[in-house]
Structure formats: structure tokens, C-alpha cells
Task: structure prediction
Amino acid sequence: MITEEKFIFDKSLDVFVEGEVTHKSPSNIALVKYWGKTGEQIPANPSISFTLRNCTTITTLKFVPSSRHSFKVFVEGKREASFEPKIRKFFIRIVKYCPYIAQYEFTIDTMNTFPHSSGIASSASGFSALALCIMSLERDLNPAMTDEYFRQKASFLARLGSGSACRSVYSGIVEWGRSDVFEGSSDLVAIPFNKAHKVFYDFQDTILLVDKGEKEVSSTVGHGLMYNHPFATARFEQAREHLAELKVALEEGDVKEFTRIVESEALTLHAMMMTSNPYFMLMKHNTLKIIEEVWAYRKKYDLNLTITLDAGANVHLLYPKEETEQAMRLINDKLIHYCEKGNYIMDEVSTENDDFEE
Ligand code: PMV
Result:
């Protein structure tokens, strides 16, 4: 079993290096959703996601030895103090595992390859990229570190920034959270799942941008509302069942079963929001319009187009690569009219060959 002790840096150092590292890390879309947590980012149920290829964050970390820790955040070269409280919280959480950060002055410069304020959460790719940068610094201080440890601790640290970020450290299909059906799974780090049928490794994800505005309720608040939620126990149990069933569907290449589970997960996530106290709703009118259009078209042409939702109004349209032509016809004829300014982003599942290193 993996324990926190594994991730405590305990070398005594007398030389602190100065330098600069850059990492690029992708966003991910959950198939079985993480919604509800305890303690320090411990998920209430296990989750699994597709790590994407095109929606990425690129972060450069400059580090200069200093008698006291400090940092500044820039977005594409421009100071962005509004990002700093979340990152300060992250540093406070990780200092126990990375005590050397107390001896550094950091400059963090970050940018997303997807449009600003597209309503796509950048915290997963953002904290994953930042955690990878911290690990590059740690490797400078401890060159004997293995690649496996580098990635595992990056996932551990990313989780402390934003839970779902721990899955973005690996490409392809990634599981996070203790589960009886995933060997080696842990609440502390994500693990890559490499046993899916080939149809899933080139799945496409077109993100239909329904609403680019700020979310009215943050995911931190949403997770918190799962405490004392009347359906919480049943929900966490359902997620466990879905994860076990999805594993079989992924291995067997059963796309119909994949659709059933993934759509149920998306709607359950939003059902939890609508039944929280206070209740809230992140879906918009056009979210529902898109879902109805997709379901009607899928039925008419016997396709496998599948919808899923993040904690927002945008719709992720997932489909096997061979259905790209039909999906594009539906998007351009119909769905585009429900997107803000007709915007959508084409993405797909990443593979191990993707070079996310800068
Ligand atoms: O990582 P957070 O705390 O932003 O939560 C993410 C929650 C969902 O995106 C809704 C689900 C998930 O598993 O990614």
C-alpha cells in the first residue's frame, strides 16, 4: 500500500541550485466522476478519466535560492495575483513533502493552449503542470530519483492542488482512488490503466462550449455540499459499481455499455448538485438541447456518440474515431447553434507517445 511517508523528501541539503523548468500537461475528462472528498483531498469514491491531447497548460517555474519562500504568478508574462491564493494553499499543503520549497523564491509563468474563459476547468492541467515543475526541481536536488517515482510523486502533489489534477500526470486512461478492481489503486495517487480495448485509445472528445462564463458555484463548494447530502452514501456506492462495470466494458471494447455508464455518471453528477442543500444547477438550456439532439441522432443512425459533463454547462461529445464524419455532420448542422458564438474544441484521448515535455 502506498503511504504518505513515501513522498517526504528527507535529504539534508547544503547546496540549493538555481534554474528554470517547463512542463506541459493536459486536461482530462472524467468518465466515472469524483464528487465529494474528505481530509486532505481524499476522494469519497474512485474515478477514471481520459487524459486529453490538445487542451494543455504550459508552465515555467523559475527558482532562485532565498532565505525565505515567496512566489509570483504570471499568465503569459502578465502578473496574475488572482491565481495566487490557490497556489499559496498548494505550497502550504506540499511543504511537508517538499521542505526545500521554503528555501526558494519562485516565478511561475503559465498559459493554456485552449481559449481563455472557455469554461473549461484549467485546474487539472494547471496543477499537474506545476507539480511536474516542482518534481523537476526535486530531481535537480536528488538526481538518483527514478522516472517512476518522479511521476508518482507528481501525481501525489498535483492531487493536493486539485483532486482531478492527479490523473492528468499520466496519458491515456487513468484511475484514481482505492478500488478493489484496480490493482495498485490508491487514494493518494492516480495510476494509468493500459488494458482497455483499442477502440478507446483513439476516442474523440469534441467540447461544445455552451457557456464560457465563470461558474456560479466552484467545485470546492460543490464537493463540500456532499457532506450530509441525503444521497451521498448511495452515490458513492454507485460510483464504485460503475467503476467496476466500466473496467469490464473498457477491456472488452463494449462501447454501448461505456455509453450507458458514462452518461449515467454525467447526469448523476448534476443530479447531486440539484439535490444539494443549498441546491444549484450548472446545466443551461442549451446543455439540454445538445443532449436531446445527440440522443435523437444516435438512435436514428445507430451510433455511439456519448455525452458527458464536467462541473459546468459545456458538453463533451465522446465518440469512436470511425464515427468522426457523422459526429461532425451533427455538430456543424445542429449542435453549433447551441454553442456560445458557435465555438467548440476538438480533442481526443492522449497516448503514451504524446510528448508533453517541453
Ligand atoms: O479536481 P476538482 O476538485 O476540480 O474536482 C473535479 C470534479 C469533476 O471534474 C466534476 C469530476 C472529476 O472527476 O474530474
Q: What stands out?
A: The chain has two domains: 4-193, 203-348. The first helix runs from residue 84 to 94. The chain has ten helices and 13 strands. Residues 30, 33-35, 47, 121, 123, 162-164, 219, 223, 269, 310-311 surround PMV (CB under 6 Å).
